[in-house]
Write a structure and sequence with these properties.
CATH class of the largest domain: Mainly Alpha
EC number: 4.2.99.18
Number of helices: 11
Helix content: 55-70%
Catalytic activity: 2'-deoxyribonucleotide-(2'-deoxyribose 5'-phosphate)-2'-deoxyribonucleotide-DNA = a 3'-end 2'-deoxyribonucleotide-(2,3-dehydro-2,3-deoxyribose 5'-phosphate)-DNA + a 5'-end 5'-phospho-2'-deoxyribonucleoside-DNA + H(+)
Number of strands: 0
Distance between the termini: 23 Å
Bound molecules: iron/sulfur cluster
Number of domains: 2
Protein name: Endonuclease III
Family: Belongs to the Nth/MutY family.
Cofactor: [4Fe-4S] cluster
Strand content: under 5%
Oligomer: single chain
Largest sheet: none
CATH topology of the largest domain: Endonuclease Iii, domain 2
Length: about 240
């Protein structure tokens, strides 16, 4: 039995800019209407959902926020609900105690400093409890239409595995993506890449045999994985 080994450098080389364009174009064609899989109704519920989604699946967050947003759809209502009851709503999500504290605290700060609104300002967003660069990038992209690139575990892996944007830290990968992806594709590219990582270019077994962006990808193992196909593909964890 052939076993695909994890390569130290998963990509043969960095993609050329022409390959970057082709890669993103092919992902877009496969999934033209890609959007966030988190449920939200406005900027505030988006911000809370993204804070809750750290180290949790979007599906688990959506299950919890259905009742949470019914009971507390605004910063004022969230503060009135209080940390304990917020915690009861989100107990099925990892790190729920810290997240409950942060959601109530950030709601208090929105009321005290921003008139209850989500600020369109990176520094202001990152000053809120539980909000880091990745969360701020998602909010600026989805709520305000900015061409930001939030690098989560999927995008970090794809950037390195495929040669799209090699980098040793999420910030390095983000900077490469912002530099290398054509400006007119950057904002939606965030969604195309996340969905591609979640459903096709998976961590343990990338499904190269059905990948819409096979040709420009520079992953060393892609030919092997395509050859063996879905039934016999061995585990191939690169990141
Ligand atoms: S699924 Fe395979 S071919 Fe497609 S981008 Fe990922 S590693 Fe490359």
């Amino acid at each position: 039995m052939t076993t695909a080994k994890t390569p130290k450098k998963p990509a043969r080389r960095a993609m050329t800019l022409a390959e970057v364009r082709a890669f993103i174009t092919q992902l877009a064609a496969a999934n033209p209407n890609a959007e966030s899989e988190l449920d939200f109704v406005d900027d505030y519920t988006l911000l809370v959902a993204v804070v809750l989604s750290a180290q949790a699946t979007d599906a688990s967050v959506n299950r919890a926020t259905k009742a949470l947003f019914r009971d507390a759809p605004t910063p004022q209502a969230m503060v009135e609900l209080g940390e304990e009851k917020v915690g009861a709503h989100i107990r099925t999500i990892g790190l729920w105690r810290t997240k409950a504290r942060n959601v109530v605290a950030l709601s208090q700060q929105l009321l005290a400093r921003f008139d209850g609104k989500v600020p369109y300002d990176r520094a202001a967003l990152e000053s809120l409890p539980g909000v880091g660069r990745k969360t701020a990038n998602v909010v600026m992209n989805v709520a305000f239409g900015d061409s930001t690139m939030a690098v989560d575990t999927h995008i970090f892996r794809i950037g390195n595995r495929t040669g799209l944007a090699p980098g040793t830290t999420p910030r390095a990968v983000e900077d490469q993506l912002v530099r290398r992806i054509p400006a007119d594709m950057l904002r939606p590219a965030h969604h195309w890449l996340i969905l591609h990582g979640r459903y096709v270019c998976k961590a343990r077994k990338p499904e190269c045999w059905r990948c819409p962006a096979f040709d420009p990808c520079q992953y060393r193992m892609k030919d092997d994985l395509r050859a063996v196909g879905p039934d016999k593909a061995a585990s191939s964890e690169a990141f």
